[in-house]
Model the fold of this input.
Amino acid sequence: MESEDSVTGLSTAALVAIACNALVAILLLLLCLILYRACGVPSSPERLPVLAPIEAETQPGNEHKYLLTS
Done:
């Protein structure tokens, strides 16, 4: 009878390598999805970013003014 290697044409090591590469590809896609979700715009606009200064902490002399141009 023919062995399984001769039917598929791939050795056991090649099949293990393909399986490992498929697992790595899935993990990379999961990482990209997590990064995409983490870098997205917050869903609730009432939440402030962590680094945003609170109005009570800002001093009149240290206010930064930004010029927005369109």
